[in-house]
Amino acid sequence: MLFSSASITVLAPATVANVVCGFDVLGFALHEPNDVMKLRLIEQPGVVLINDDEFNLPTEPTQNVAGAALLAMLHAIPEPLGVEVRIRKAIRPGSGIGSSAASAAGAVAGLNYLLGNHFSKPELVQFAMYGEEVASGVRHADNIAPAIYGGVTLIRATTPTPDIVALDAPPLFVTVVHPQIEIKTSDARKILKQEVPLRDAIRQWANVGGLVAGLLQHDYALIGRSLEDVIVEPVRSILIPGFQDVKEGSRIAGALGGGISGSGPSLFMLSQDEATARAVENVMHATYQRLGLDYLTYLTTINPVGCQVLVDEN
Amino acid sequence: MLFSSASITVLAPATVANVVCGFDVLGFALHEPNDVMKLRLIEQPGVVLINDDEFNLPTEPTQNVAGAALLAMLHAIPEPLGVEVRIRKAIRPGSGIGSSAASAAGAVAGLNYLLGNHFSKPELVQFAMYGEEVASGVRHADNIAPAIYGGVTLIRATTPTPDIVALDAPPLFVTVVHPQIEIKTSDARKILKQEVPLRDAIRQWANVGGLVAGLLQHDYALIGRSLEDVIVEPVRSILIPGFQDVKEGSRIAGALGGGISGSGPSLFMLSQDEATARAVENVMHATYQRLGLDYLTYLTTINPVGCQVLVDEN
């Protein structure tokens, strides 16, 4: 194994999981916002975490998303190694755009660079999933996979090992709105029905097939027609004020479609061009100003590379 | 509209529907077997059917799959028109490889040629679906779509109009075995559970996404991993003696995977090369000879064009 003595900076991107019909299986990475993480190897074995932001996340490694992911990774290495991580989060915890995944994915992508890229992407996904377990109790890869691979990813399976398919999507503009309300992932899971009508399930997998085909064939109209969720959205959208107004207004403004990002509260809309994405942002502004809710918006594009490692000048 | 006075011959192909995880949405056309249909326009308005085989199918147009499809098509034309159809079926009714769909699709593809290709493929699918209604009581497009479009098709939706996506698949060899037992489509439908666990549904749509991606990316290994059905096969395979032996033996022989064709009793297996497809055929021979069941096998490839119209020499 090649150890690097460099200090590096990782840009760990926000991600959208549960892409409409692709609940639990489809996700993509965003160009903005990014967490910024600085990593370097240190003499003392273990993980040292330093927060460089206002979120007061735990610095005890086993309680911290990045820490737990790094400990899993260190555990897979025979040598006793130490790593220091300084984290400046820009992706707000609880926003539904993969805040915890960014911390976990950025940490393992960074450490992997310092180890001479010893581990493969599927292995990095597995390590980072330990971080997700700290955040939500579930070792899921929905946001981890696009954060590690970039672009649009399909998680075909997570066991025995993650089977992740990178989908070569056409350029897409993404408008995200984060209404400042709290939805816990665990609560959002609880309200899902554990049995679904076969009829709805068939319609959902027809749309998943259509969405994957639309992405790979760069067929924007097919992408738009396939952005339909008959299973999760009807239940979860009730938790998000303004959902119907944003969705309908965005379609009228020309968006291909969209829905809940992750388990919410953020909503995302996909557009073929920037002007439409901006019109969608205006729909979001109008909706939440009318409702009197604080909110943030992002107008960005799909990030094809995922976590990006920059070597610091010493 | 351009009317042709020619007599034409249509080769209407067998098709595989319910492709493993793609229950109700994925199908493909085969090079063999084909029904052979001869069509010509006649003076007297309406449909005249002539059987040229041993199956004794009804010749009253409203009771006949091809007849019902043609009547639906004639109904969409302002002029009173007549068409004569002579049908020599090679695809056995009840085999599960789209016998009724071949009749319906072949009939409308043939008449459309005689009408100067007046109708689009989605329109032909809609007309042919009236034929399927005669056969099974359900106006489904699972076999019709690949018979009309050729290749591998995804039916993203059937209402308000069929939304059919042609998938550019890599070369695939298909081995089919038709054990000579009877399974009625209506019975096969009845034993399905109308509610499915969300967990299984998610796994199924992950596999549908994987299969569509594997086909479009020409990734044989991904196709193989995605050929998994956790919802329908566990229930329906019980109706088909030899199912597990064929499936497991075929995988051991090198097949990518496969399952029940349509609602059975035929089984199909996909292979990357002809030698493997032949080894799979030997597994099928061995299985049904051991069970003492009569059976037929076909070793063929995916037919990229669907129904083929040949103009007869006069």
Automatic annotation (TrEMBL), chains A, B:
Annotated organism of origin: Hymenobacter sublimis
UniProt name for this protein: Homoserine kinase
Family: Belongs to the GHMP kinase family. Homoserine kinase subfamily.
Gene that encodes it: thrB
Location(s), subcellular: Cytoplasm
Pathways involved: Amino-acid biosynthesis; L-threonine biosynthesis; L-threonine from L-aspartate: step 4/5
Function: Catalyzes the ATP-dependent phosphorylation of L-homoserine to L-homoserine phosphate.
Principal EC category: transferase
InterPro entries given in the database record: GHMP_kinase_C_dom, GHMP_kinase_C_sf, GHMP_kinase_N_dom, Homoserine_kinase, Ribosomal_Su5_D2-typ_SF, Ribsml_uS5_D2-typ_fold_subgr
Domain GHMP kinase C-terminal: 212-288
UniProt cross-references to Pfam families, sorted A to Z: GHMP_kinases_C, GHMP_kinases_N
GO terms of molecular function: homoserine kinase activity
EC number: 2.7.1.39
Reaction catalysis annotation: L-homoserine + ATP = O-phospho-L-homoserine + ADP + H(+)
Keywords linked to the UniProt accession: Amino-acid biosynthesis, ATP-binding, Cytoplasm, Kinase, Nucleotide-binding, Threonine biosynthesis, Transferase
Domain GHMP kinase N-terminal: 67-151
Keyword Cytoplasm: yes
Entry-linked NCBIfam families: PRK01212.1-4, thrB
